[in-house]
């Protein structure tokens, strides 16, 4: 599959095409993979979206800005955008990951998209990657509203505890199983004053934390 089509889709032409190739390469394939670029792209995306929301909503609180941003940069949003850009057909995987359906795994799709953002930044400059991201997010940013918020379970749990003047939850990564490219993370969440503890497993620590928070919220609701 020609990368020129992908460049056309994301509206950016690389000077160093090897950066894009690395951004598409999963660690199951080789050591020259997207992990470091994903780390960079995550930070660049977060800042650009934060700045856009800061300028779009000059009168709303930091808390609301944070919750809106979390919706725009969360895994589900990135996965949807990656699918819209037809990124799955360009991802380079090792044989075992390919056989296990990794090309459609949400955690890989969101990581690859962030890695592409990191690659564009390395290939150009901040102004350029800002233009690329804002164009890709144009419709989402136009439609976002401070009055329509879908808070994630961790945010909901934290706000509930704060409203009751209780200690915040303690999240702890307690185990990792499986191979590097197909790892499962176990996270424990403890509410000291409510004497509640849960453990959940998922493909990322963040998702396991969210799953813990969701279960605790249900328990709290059931007991109230």
From TrEMBL:
The keyword Transferase does not apply. Residues 3-125 form the RNase III domain. GO terms for molecular function: double-stranded RNA binding; ribonuclease III activity. GO terms for biological process: regulation of gene expression; rRNA processing. It catalyses: Endonucleolytic cleavage to 5'-phosphomonoester. Belongs to the ribonuclease III family. This is ribonuclease III.
């Amino acid at each position: 599959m020609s990368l020129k089509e992908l460049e056309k889709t994301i509206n950016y032409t690389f000077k160093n095409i090897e950066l894009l190739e690395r951004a598409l390469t999963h660690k199951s394939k080789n050591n020259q993979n997207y992990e470091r670029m994903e780390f960079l792209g995550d930070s660049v995306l977060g800042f650009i979206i934060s700045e856009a929301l800061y300028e779009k909503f000059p009168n709303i609180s930091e808390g609301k800005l944070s919750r809106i941003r979390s919706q725009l940069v969360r895994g589900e949003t990135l996965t949807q955008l990656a699918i819209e850009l037809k990124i799955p057909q360009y991802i380079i995987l090792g044989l075992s990951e390919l056989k296990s359906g990794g090309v459609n795994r949400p955690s890989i799709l969101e990581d690859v998209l962030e890695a592409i953002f990191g690659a564009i930044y390395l290939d150009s400059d901040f102004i350029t990657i800002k233009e690329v991201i804002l164009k890709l997010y144009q419709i989402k940013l136009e439609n976002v509203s401070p009055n329509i918020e879908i808070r994630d379970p961790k945010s909901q749990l934290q706000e509930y505890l704060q409203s009751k003047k209780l200690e915040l939850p303690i999240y702890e990564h307690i185990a990792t199983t499986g191979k590097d490219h197909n790892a499962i993370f176990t996270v424990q969440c403890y509410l000291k004053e409510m004497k509640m503890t849960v453990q959940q497993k998922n493909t990322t620590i963040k998702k396991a934390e969210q799953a813990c928070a969701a279960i605790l919220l249900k328990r709290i609701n059931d007991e109230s």
